[in-house]
Structure formats: structure tokens, C-alpha cells
């Protein structure tokens, strides 16, 4: 990731790097002028003063340019990373995203990207100080080769110690980065579970001490150990420098010519070099943290690798239609790592056609929502195929296929904006629907956005229904939509809205536990333990040669529902309407 960003900003990085090099060189020149002024009696002091002033000015200007450029690089890297991760998340296979979980994505978007961006801010510090140290070395070599050779040995030893320490530190920083993803999950629980934590003091204490506390502590401990190792190795480097100054002053500089100049030069250079070297050694861990974070982002985004190309349909595309959607032996498996068990859904054989209302019923955990996700193309089938108008839906066209659907799952999300592209009558249509759903006193659509989302759960679900209506897709999926509605609105939903959708030719899949309304369905599909036990197509009647519109042959459907013991399961069209009237 880091190398990708570096490649992306190569030009700017080069320019900023050159400015840093210039700043480093100017700083060394300043020291050289100081040394000359201190030790050369016969020097032209006027020329020396000019050179000193030029070097100081050059150091300041190049430092300014480099810092501004690196700041821009850092901001650009941060934005680039956020765009890159968001794009990966948007394009990711939904199931993979579900498996990865929100906290990891959150931590990649926030902390890890901030660390990587930080690297670009610390980069000039590293570069400038590295140049100063290198320049000082060159100056020392110019003063005396033999002493310089000794300096190289000392610095070599320091670097070796630093490298060994570095390997150890990285291990701890890695552990901290992984634990931090879990910590983000706990942070979410702090807010999402606020009610539960307030209602149960023992649970709150356990969460604070054992769960959240442990996680915070692990991150603290691992990061503290990792960073301490770095800091200790920096101090070891410092000690080597002081040792070396002593060695030069009291042992190495023998009777060389210009003894005073060499000794003063070395002492001056070393004292001058201590601060940059120290900064360098302290900044390197930041670069390593950035590397660890970059690797973590890589790992997270690799798991989000896109499998399917995204649709090229423009957002306000005309609503598509379909003649039939058939699940032909489709199946999906969840592997539960902790419990080491598998939940297997299917193989399911089911057909859907426009103008048909199907109720999907069954006990908790029987697989209704999973089947709805499979049907809507959110999950790739592990087996079998989804056949749209006689053509199997593959990876290449699954995103297109999904555009047939509008779904309200129980964990639905309400966006503030309707996100339906600019449409002059969007507000009007939205407000008319709000009126129809008795929400006009609470919320309005203005400028393509809801004026508020601070509503009760049932009201929020009605807002989601408004969004669904506005999307005007041919296939609607309602996952226990009515569960949070009051009896009055349940009536409106089952007896008015659903028939109205059917009359408009919509295909509707309703997941429901409201058995008093089951008789209003055209067909009831029952699930048990991941299998369709009633209302599905028989595998042998599923193939392509089944009548394209089974609605023309309601008898083909009704007996299956009845066979499943669904009291009141009806045929479709006129039959259902008559049944409804009778029930009313
Ligand atoms: N995101 C998931 N990750 C792993 N396993 C899952 C996931 N969602 C569901 N499952 C598994 O699939 C089974 C069926 O879940 P599903 O939500 O499809 O049932 P459901 O019939 O809709 O239940 P309910 O009526 O309670 O909403 C669950 O028992 C669970 O083991």
C-alpha cells in the first residue's frame, strides 16, 4: 500500500525530496561555515558571512518548500487511501463484506489510513535529518579519513543493533494493529449496546473490565513494548555517538596536521549531528507504524477483492422488467468458525413471476433472510443457478440482475439522501407517498433528502417503504417489514399496499410471521432448517420447459401450498382477490 502511494505521487515526492536534500545540504554548509569562522584566523570574514547567510537562507527556504510539499503529499495520500478503501468496500462481494465486519473496515478507513498518511509528514523529517547525518559524515571524511572510518564502524554497529530491535518491535506493533480491529468492534458496542449496558450493571462491569478493558490494555501493552524497543535502540545509538566523540577527542586524533581544526570540527559535527540523528531514530518507528498499517490495509482490502464487475447502468435508468426469475437448485453455506459448524441452505427450486405475491414463512433461523439475500443476488450461490428470463445469471451480470430488486431487510439502512439522481418531481412524489403512509406530519422530502430520520422504528420502516416505492423496481422483498407496525398499519400493508403492488405487476416476496394474513398470499413457501419444505418447485418441473407464466395456471401453485398445510393459501389473480374479499 505504502509503495503504491509512493508510486502514485512519484513526481511530487521527488520534488519534495530534492527540496529536503537541499535543506540538508544547506544545514551542513551552515555548520561548515561556523567551523571555518571558529578555526580560520586568516579567513575572509566578509565572504564567510555572505556564505553563512546564503546557506542559512537556503536551509530555511528549502525546508519551507519541502514541508509544504510533504504536507500536501500527506493529505493527498490520506484522501487517496480513503477513496481506495471506500471503492473497494463498495465493489466488494457482499458476503465477504459481511464476513469481514464493520470494525475492520472502520479501522482501515480511520486509524490505519491516518498512520500511512502520517508517514508522509514524517518523511521530510527523516529525509532532512538523514541528509544532515550523511552530510556530516562527508564533512568528517574530508576532515580525516581514518577517524571517518572509525565513525563508519560505530554507525554500522548502531544500525545492526537497531535493525535487530526493529524486528522485535514490529512483531509487537503487528499484534497491536490486529487487536485494534477488535477494539473498534468494542467501541461500536459502547454506543450500539448503550441500553443493555445501562440496564445491567454486572454486564457493564464485565464489558468495561474484561472485554473493552482487556482489549485497550493489549493494544497499550503491545504498542508500548514495540515503541519502547525503538526508543531504547535510539538511546543505544545516542550512547554510541557520545562514546565515539570521546574516542575521537581522547584516543583517535593523534598528531594529525591541523589537530585543533580536526578536533573542533569533529566535536562540532558530532554535537550538531546528535539532534538530527536522535530525531531520525525516533521518526523511523513512525515509518514502521505506517508500514504495519499499510500492510493491514492491504490485508483488509485483499479480502474485499472484487469478484463481479459493477453494472454500467446509469442511476436513473428506466425500471427494468422481467418475465421470470427461477432459483434452480441454488444453495448457500455459512461456516461458523467458532462452533466449527455449517449452516446449509438449499438446494432450493423456486420460480417467481411479475404480479405475484409470495409469502416466505418458517421458524427463526430456518433460512428465510438468507434465501432472500440469495434471491436478490447479494450472495453468490454455492451451487445451482439463478435463471433470469431463461438465462443463468453469472458473475458478470449479477450486479445488473440485482438492479431488479428493492429490498427492506430487518437491518435496513436509511440514507439521508434519496440518492436517486436529480429528478424535479422526486420531492413531490416522495411527499405524496409520505402522506399515504401517514408520515407527512413527521417528515418531508426536501431537495431529495428526508428532513429527519429521528423516528420510531415502525416509522423508519415506513420511510424505507417510501424509498422502495420511489425506486420502482419490478421485484420487491420485504423481510418482516410489518413486524414493527401497529395493527392499523399492518392492515394497510397487507390488504392495501400489497394488492396494489400486485396490480402494478410487481413481484413481491414477503417474509412474514403474521399468520392471520397468510391467506392473502398468492403462494406460501415454507422453510425449515435451510430447506424449502412446501411451496417450492419440484426439481423435475423446474427446467426451462415449465410454462413461462405459471400464473396462467394457478392450479399448479395452489395445491402445493395447500399440500403444505397452509390454511387459506390461494391461487392467484381473481382467486386471491375473491379470497381476500371473503376474508375481509
Ligand atoms: N451473516 C451470517 N453469517 C453466518 N451465519 C449466518 C449469517 N446469517 C445467518 N446465518 C446462519 O443462517 C441461519 C439462518 O439465518 P436466517 O437469518 O436466514 O434465518 P431466518 O429464517 O431469516 O430467521 P429469523 O426468522 O429469525 O429472521 C442462522 O441460524 C445462522 O446460523
Automatic annotation (TrEMBL):
Example GO biological process term? peptide transport
Q: Name one GO molecular function term.
A: ATP binding
Give all residue intervals belonging to the ABC transmembrane type-1 domain: 11-280
- Among its keywords, does the record have Transmembrane helix? yes
One Pfam family this sequence matches: ABC_tran
Region (Disordered) spans which residues? Answer: 534-584
The annotated topology with respect to the bilayer is: Multi-pass membrane protein
The places in or outside the cell where this protein is found are: Cell membrane
Q: Does the keyword Membrane apply?
A: yes
Keywords of the record, alphabetical order, are: ATP-binding, Cell membrane, Membrane, Nucleotide-binding, Transmembrane, Transmembrane helix
Compositionally biased residues, Low complexity: 538-567
Q: Where are the transmembrane segments?
A: 48-70, 119-141, 147-165, 229-253, 265-284
User: Which CDD domains has this protein been placed in?
Assistant: ABCC_MRP_Like
InterPro entries annotated for this entry?
Answer: AAA+_ATPase, ABC1_TM_dom, ABC1_TM_sf, ABC_transporter-like_ATP-bd, ABC_transporter-like_CS, Cyc_pep_transpt_SyrD/YojI, P-loop_NTPase, Type_1_exporter
Which residue numbers delimit the ABC transporter domain?
325-554
Q: What is the name attached to this protein's record?
A: Peptide ABC transporter
Organism of provenance: Roseateles aquatilis
